[in-house]
Amino acid sequence: MKANWIHHFAQINDIQMHYVEDASNHKSDLSPVIFCHGFPMLWFSWHRQIPVLAEAGYRVIAPSMRGMGRTDSPLEPEEYSVKKITADLLGLLDHCNIDKAIFVGIDFGSFAIQDFALRHPERVNSIICLENPAAPHNPNKSPLTEYAEMGAKHFLHIEYFRIPPRADIELATSPREFLKKVMWILSGQANYFDVFKHPPGTSYIDAMAEPPPFPWDWLSEIEFEYFVAEYSQSGFTGGLNWYRSMDLKWEERKAFEGVESQVDAWFIGSEKDVDLEGFHGDDPIGLMRAIFPKLHEVTMIPNVGHMIALEASEELNKVLLSYLDKIHQL
To answer: What is the C-alpha separation between 127 and 113, in angstroms, rounded?
Structure first.
């Protein structure tokens, strides 16, 4: 399928934001769709979804989220607050002259669109969350405190990321090795939790097993090299700051504890996702439903992991198109 996307740069909310847009077959009666990625992802993580939705008539926009890809990467973790991230999305809507949109998010992008829906429901048609159904938190203990306690027992990536500059330097020194290992171990073809067998203080790269050579069933070497080129240019500090700002976001979200959003919501997960299995508690869907009681549908895709947009592109596209059709029937 031909890709008709166009790259744009815009000054939005004190940063230069990069985003890709495909409106080549836009039908005015269909709501625009905005894709929000996480780490270590890029707008390009959606490159198999963008042309499919565009061909179906949607105006599709995929930003490089703050700190990643060609969007500016502020060095201070405080620049990755909920306030800043939601302002990025609000500014993107205004810049693109969009009143309301459907937001699709994965990983940190899923949390971002939930935060946005809570704060700006009038600008949201629906949210479709992938893999990460809610931002889990202990009201009595900050997340980085909890993760530091876990990381004192065994290797934990969040604790490894927490204090600069070790992770920044090691990942920037070996971007190809890190990205290849982490993308593989996050997939459904590996067991992410093997990294927990390593002691505290281990480098992330050393904690991950060697992946098989390319091509993989779900990713070609040419596609992979795009990720390498982008992160080689940007470095990893921006992505790591999404972790380093977890406590700040935790504080910001306290104002919305107990709030039930009336925004329509949908969820897509994968049966072998490490985040769902290891970082969202016993009832992750229940956590999401408590915040978004209008959670219309939950779909689980078998035999794939966290890299669902690449691992199960065709299956995901079918579910997305089905959800989008149902959204327009509400």
So the answer is: 7
Extract the runs of DSSP E, i.e. beta strands, from 32-189: 33-36, 60-63, 101-106, 124-130
> What is the β-pairing status of strands 6-12 and 124-130?
unpaired
Q: How far apart are CA 106 and CA 108, in angstroms?
A: 6
Return left, alpha or beta for 185; rule: phi > 0 is left, psi -120 to 50 is alpha, else beta.
Answer: alpha
Give the residue among 35, 46, 63 at the shortest CA–CA distance from 3: 46
Question: What is the distance between the terminal CA atoms of the chain, rounded to a whole angstrom?
Answer: 30
pLDDT digits (tens, 9 = 90+) for 214-252: 999 999 999 999 999 999 999 999 999 999 999 999 999
Both tokens assigned to 57: 């008539």
The band of 92, judged by pLDDT with boundaries at 50, 70 and 90, is very high
Provide the 10 A C-beta neighbour count for residue 282: 6
- Residue-wise pLDDT for 39-82, tens only, equals 999 999 999 999 999 999 999 999 999 999 999 999 999 999 99
Q: Which domains, and CATH codes, for the chain? A: 6-327 (3.40.50.1820)
Concatenated DSSP letters of 15-66: EEEEEEEE-TT--TTS--EEEE--TT--GGGGTTTHHHHHHTT--EEEE--T
CB-count burial class (<10 Å; 0-12, 13-18, 19+) for 83: middle
Torsion of CA 118, 120, 124, 128, to 10 degrees: -30
* 315, 301 Cβ separation under 8 angstroms: yes
Q: What is the CA radius of gyration of the chain?
A: 19
Instruction: Please tell me what DSSP assigns to residue 153.
Output: T
